[in-house]
Amino acid sequence: MTGENLAKLTPSRVVLEGVPFVGFYDQTQQRDKARCPEDVCFPSSMRAVLEYLGEPDWGCKHAKGREPCRVHCTYSYLMGVTGCAFQLSWRPGWHEDNVEIMYMSDDPMAPFARAFRSVGYGFEVLQPVEGADNEAAWRQRIGESIRRGVPALAFGVIGPPECCVVTGYDEDGDVLIGWNCFQQMPPFNAGLEYEPTGEFRKRDWFKDTQSPIIVGEKQPCPPLKELYRDALQWALQVARTPLVTRYDHAVRHNGLAAYTAWAEHLERDSEFATEDMAALWQRFNVHDSAVGVVAEGRWYGGQFLMEAIEHLPYGMAEDLLRAAACYAGEHDLMWQIWDAVGGIGRSEDRVRNLARPEVRRKIAALIVRARDKDAEAAEHIERALSFYR
Fold first, then answer.
1. Which of 136, 186, 299, 324 could share a disulfide with 305, CB 3.0–4.6 Å?
2. Is the dihedral of CA 389, 104, 335, 186 positive or negative?
3. Alpha-carbon span 164 to 71, nearest angstrom
4. 354-377: pLDDT as tens digits
5. Closest alpha carbon to 82 in 100, 60, 61
6. Which fold has domain 3-218?
7. 124 Cβ neighbours under 8 A, 6+ residues apart
């Protein structure tokens, strides 16, 4: 569909200035050396939108990062209330979409609905309508949001279908402008243009964009005490639901069961007994992504629990602190897993190290230990919640 067939926007260019940067760790460090990693795209993108809208830090104002990092409390809060801090998914085989947050339960919209409810905003997910001019409709709705001063969220635009922030448009909407975690990464940035302030400029964006989210009006928000208690109950459900099947009819091991599946896959020597580097790279990437999900998720999960203590009855504190300690232990075990292949990062040497049976068996044992810590954390959370009964 050409631009001539699409609705024109008035004015033809609107860009919201000062929307906070969103990007993975290495990009973030270039722009904000004090920021801790924010590698889960949806809560990071939503954190940026809330900052731009002038929302105060959610949850608390005193979360501590490891030097020299600074934790944005809103990101920590969103990691907790969405369940991203507690998730792990493993589809049998080697699938790079294991990191998708929609797979943490049989309700793919749960993390998004929980996020918006927990900060007191409405939202609308734009879906394609059969027979409709969806590009024109999405262009119009995104433009309306930008013109009322509210960034939109979208999945994809650049790179994989991960969440990004749309901060403006140009040329009547032929160009979308914003922040995307993949905007500096080859091959996703091929032919990409940039604003002078660094935001991406993406032409022909519709074909690479899924389900834009329009942030709605401010709404009454439940008390933080209620929100934290609900988030803890959700954390238990996410951790203890062994299988998720609804979203795309694929069987996915979930929560505690995903650790077991992950460890078992690493012990399948036949799947690593190859010189096919493409296959070894795929297995390494899926494994390494799982390490990252647990390392960052559980570290922020511990932060979230320590924030929760400030808003929940005193009698819950001891068990929540013990659960936080379990998550900190899981985080440290993930660093041991990275060390086992030669350090954090992706390289051919590390890929070949993972192919070694003795390395994989060592890692599998560490994964089982992490699973046991995750199970112990869930028990402590359950005991803390029993304070209400």
1. 324
2. negative
3. 20
4. 999 999 999 999 999 999 999 999
5. 100
6. Cathepsin B; Chain A (3.90.70)
7. 213, 214, 216
For 280-296, b where at least 16 C-beta lie within 10 A, e where not — what string? bebbbebbbbbbbbbbb
Residue scoring higher pLDDT (10 or 207): 207
Give the SS3 label for residue 281.
helix
CB atoms within 10 A of CB 297: 24
Model confidence pLDDT, tens digit, residues 259-303: 999 999 999 999 999 999 999 999 999 999 999 999 999 999 999
100-131 exposure pattern, b = at least 16 Cβ within 10 A, e = fewer: bbbbbbeebebbbebbbbbbebebeebeeeee
Q: Is 215 helix (H, G, I), strand (E, B) or coil?
A: strand
Do the strands 163-170 and 209-218 form a parallel or antiparallel pair, or are they unpaired?
unpaired
The dihedral built from the CA positions of residue 60, 61, 67 and 70, taken in this order, carries a sign that is positive
Domain 224-388: CATH class, spelled out = mainly alpha
- Return the number of other C-beta atoms located less than 10 Å from residue 185's C-beta: 15
Max Cα-Cα span within the chain: 64
Residue with tokens 């091959």: 187
Cα separation, 130 vs 127, whole angstroms: 10
Angle among Cα 265, 301, 223 to the nearest 5 degrees reads 140
CA pseudo-torsion sign 61, 375, 272, 340? positive
Q: Which two tokens stand for residue 82?
A: 């969405």
CA-based R_g, the chain, Å: 21
Percent of the chain predicted with pLDDT > 70 = 91
C-alpha dihedral sign at 163, 165, 168, 171: negative
| Token pair of 142 as six digits | 């995104």
Upstream peptide bond of 160 is cis (omega within 30 degrees of 0): no
d(CA 63, CA 66): 10
**Domain ranges within the chain, ordered by starting residue:** 3-218, 224-388
Rounded Cα distance, 370 and 326, in Å = 9
- How does strand 175-179 pair with strand 152-156? unpaired
